[in-house]
Design brief:
30% strand
């Protein structure tokens, strides 16, 4: 009986859906996290009667075919790249992006990672790094005798050095933007990689070319809405239960058939 196998694909798809929802909920306090959603496609159909096939010599046709589907599959888990809310942290090296841009960091293997996580630190040399110790690209060094580090909305980094009464410009932050942000590859550690689907990174200074501006002393929170996630979780549970009920019903029908005399 095909219903058993069709319903099993529905249960499998809803299991994957719950996995995606659980990952969103687990990361609802992760800086710059972008929620995912599961998308589904129906599987192939068995065409018993094709729509439009001829039914008589006079040219009459079947108005609607007879097709039996074979279930569903999870086809993708795109990220929702909407802006997350920003939270004041009062740390001078915390920076939030208001717009579509990504910070760039140099990965140990030479590749460039992209992130919305603006919680930066200084390493032993004074170089700006992310929480994994990867150097911000382009590199910016804050001398040990600096004070009053300032990061402007356009990414200009300034600080007072020693006893100077005038701030010195230490560097310029840049942001990357992509035509298809959902095509970025997630590699963990709040990092993404460029792919053929995302398109090449378009690098610009903040507050130009749609990259967005910067907010010092703030961090972008995850764009996970707890109420929406719980509603999606309940809907997934109900869909799973209904598919399980179909399997139970199909089993009862098979049992009734086997008991016919």
């Amino acid at each position: 009986m095909k219903a058993l196998y069709i319903a099993s694909t529905g249960m499998s798809a809803q299991e994957r859906n719950v996995e995606v929802i659980s990952n969103n909920i687990a990361n609802m306090r992760t800086t710059g996290y972008k929620r995912q959603r599961a998308e589904f496609q129906d599987l192939l159909y068995q065409q018993i009667t094709r729509a439009g096939s001829q039914t008589s010599d006079q040219g009459t046709m079947v108005p609607a075919g007879l097709e039996i589907g074979s279930g569903v599959r999870t086809v993708s888990t795109p990220r929702v790249m909407s802006q997350g809310s920003v939270n004041m942290t009062e740390r001078e090296l915390d920076v939030a992006i208001r717009g579509e841009g990504f910070f760039m960091v140099q990965l140990p293997d030479g590749r460039t990672g992209y992130t919305r996580d603006g919680s930066f630190e200084r390493d032993s040399q004074g170089t700006l790094v992310n929480s994994s110790g990867y150097t911000l690209d382009p590199g910016i060094v804050i001398p040990g005798d600096s004070r009053g580090v300032s990061i402007s909305p356009d990414g200009t980094v300034e600080a007072y050095l020693g006893t100077d009464a005038v701030p010195t410009q230490l560097g310029q932050l840049q942001l990357a933007r992509f035509v298809n942000k959902s095509g970025l590859e997630s590699i963990g550690d709040n990092l993404f990689l460029e792919t053929a689907a995302s398109g090449q990174a378009q690098i610009s200074v903040p507050n130009a070319d749609g990259t967005g501006d910067l907010l010092q002393n703030y961090l972008e929170l995850a764009n996970v809405n707890s109420v929406t996630e719980i509603a999606d979780l309940i809907a997934a549970q109900r869909a799973y239960e209904m598919n399980a009920r179909v399997i139970s019903g199909a089993d009862q029908m098979m049992q009734a058939t086997s008991q016919l005399r």
